[in-house]
Amino acid sequence: MIPQIKNICCIGAGYVGGPTMAVIASKCPHIQVNVIDINSERIREWNNSNLDKLPIYEPGLSQLIKRCRGINLHFSTEMKSNISKADMIFISVNTPTKTKGRGAGKAIDLKWIESSARTISLYAKGTTIVVEKSTLPVRTAETIKKILTTSSNDNNTKEEKTFFVLSNPEFLSEGKAINDLTNPDRVLIGGDNDLAIKSLIQIYSKWVDKGKILTTDLWSSELSKLTANAFLAQRISSINSISALCEETGADINDVACAVGSDKRLGKLFLDPGPGFGGSCFKKDILNLVYICNHYGLEKVANYWQTVININNWQQKRITDLVVQNLFGTVSEKRIAILGFSFKANTNDTRESPSINICKDLIEEGAILHIYDPKVEYEKIKKDLNSSDLISNNINHKEGGWIYSRNIIDAASGTDAIIILTEWDEFKEINWSKISNVMRTPSWLFDTRSICNIHKAKSFGLNVWSVGKGK
Ligand code: NAD
Ligand code: UGA
């Protein structure tokens, strides 16, 4: 008989766990959903009565939280009771790149996965379906199974515990998480137990067409997630590499992307040039793919995927270089407005944002940056740049530092240049007449996302560099 799921627990209340469980709770009112996390501050924020203060900004998320929280969606730090009453447990914890030891800088650090599995084995009761939601190296399910079975034996409980492990990678993209979750291109479920797979299908089929629910074995499911991210990132490195060639040859990257993407086999999406991909996943997942390939002796395959990261690093670096070069070879003591700090629009997430390296490099070169982002708060920028801003530090530096700005005009005032680093809608509509009046001349616009009306900006006297636009 297919196990009927009445109680779900999700370990990890992050960018995936929070939104995914909010959608499951809203689509399955008959299921109680408990999201647990070791980070009590994060849980406190999820329970904040002020919905503007949730730990994650995602369009549509606060409405779902308002609707379900306290009814069938709960956020807590309480592990034992929430795990023991769950029929199904999603593991949605972070899986960053290892920073030390074997495989440092490449392999995934599985310590949070391992500790989740150990906690489950300790507190779970009866039959439990454990679902890998985190992105994991292929064959991690084997490790999880081993931990679940061996440590539940170690715990010496008399009670019989049974675990089924499924892989159910998440394909949502930030800024569009709720839409991606409610309207997925596909749901992927890997497993080796039909009944467990069917019980997860039952949940998704409350709102996803059965034809979009794909089932595979565990290893294909785990590897599909890494491969999907590698292919997506590869497209960005491909278009960014061609953006540099456009700048040299006089071609226009947007026209090239449109012409190339009109071929149905290639498709139009994911061909926007930019300052390089950011976000918590592309880099770590490709590094992991490279590590796995090397582990299996597939050096040529590893090298092939490594170049996707190499081009991405090069794109970020070349943007700093050309800003410095165009500002007469030095940015020392110059003020520069940075528009956008999140790694993409519609999120407050800054993990691996290209803005971080570009800002650090420019500060190192002596520039004073006026940083404005519609959703990223001061504290986050301070943490990412590893330095307080000049004003709160009471430092009257002439060079090398940053200031937090509250809007575009505030950021642009007194600057020699504006650099657009994130494609927020409000940057597409900048009033260049107003902006040009508050900047120092000669003033520059560097549009790394190719989103501004450069003819307008030029007509108000700005010099313009836009990614992938020939001279
Ligand atoms: P995150 O860092 O935002 O959240 C992970 C949470 O897990 C943190 O709050 C952390 O405190 C908690 N945690 C860690 N160990 C724990 C434990 N033992 N018990 C309880 N809580 C614990 O990470 P995220 O962005 O949500 O990503 C989670 C996973 O999903 C990663 O594997 C990532 O690759 C994958 N993923 C992320 C995205 C995305 O857009 N961010 C999309 C698809 C897949
Ligand atoms: C990405 C994938 O798109 C998701 O399918 C996946 O689930 C997720 O990674 C994950 O595994 O974490 P995400 O990183 O949230 O999602 O955002 P994307 O929209 O993929 O953007 C990633 C980066 O690429 C951003 O910096 C973005 O600005 C950049 N990008 C994206 C471009 O430069 N050009 C594009 O055409 C698209």
Question: Can you walk through the features of this model?
Answer:
By secondary structure, this protein is α/β, with parallel strands linked by helices. 43% of the residues lie in helices and 14% in strands. Helix 12 (299-326) crosses helix 13 (354-364). The termini are far apart. Bound molecules: nicotinamide-adenine-dinucleotide (NAD) and uridine-5'-diphosphate-glucuronic acid. The site of uridine-5'-diphosphate-glucuronic acid has 20 residues, from helix 9. The site of nicotinamide-adenine-dinucleotide (NAD) has 26 residues, from helix 5.
The side-by-side strand order for the widest beta sheet comes to 3-2-1-4-5-6-7-8
Oligomer classification: single chain
Q: What is the straight-line distance between the termini?
A: 67 Å
Measured on Cα atoms, how large is the radius of gyration? Answer: 24 Å
What would the principal axes of the Cα set say about the shape?
Answer: globular
Taking all residues together, what is the mean pLDDT? 96
Strand content: 5-15%
Unreliable stretches (pLDDT < 50, length at least 5) are none
Helix/strand structural class? alpha/beta
Helix content: 40-55%
Q: Helical region count?
A: 18
User: What ions, cofactors and ligands are bound?
Assistant: nicotinamide-adenine-dinucleotide, uridine-5'-diphosphate-glucuronic acid
